[in-house]
Design brief:
There is one protein chain. This protein is mainly α. The protein contains three helices and no strands.
Length: 87
């Protein structure tokens, strides 16, 4: 449940920060890991709250994963644009 999602968000954030450090793209910071993990936790709580309201017709992990991928893609694009000089 919530603990698994929070741990996964934290692990994914650590992976991104390590990649930033290894690629020298942007700055690695513990605050980023903490805030990203907290964001994953809050996002999952929001998903649980929404999924309980059947009248909103937002159900299933695929919608949450799709939205997360879109948001992550935007964040990665902005990070590379701002810090790497590539884009």
């Amino acid at each position: 449940g919530t603990m698994k999602v929070t741990l996964a968000a934290g692990a994914f954030s650590v992976l991104i920060e390590l990649l930033q450090y290894i690629c020298n793209a942007g700055s690695s910071d513990i605050d980023d890991i903490i805030l990203n993990t907290l964001g994953g936790f809050i996002g999952f709580l929001f998903y649980q709250w929404i999924s309980e309201r059947k009248h909103l017709k937002i159900r299933g992990y695929i919608q949450v994963i799709s939205l997360s991928v879109i948001m992550l893609s935007g964040g990665v694009f902005i990070a590379f644009r701002d810090y790497s000089g590539i884009l």
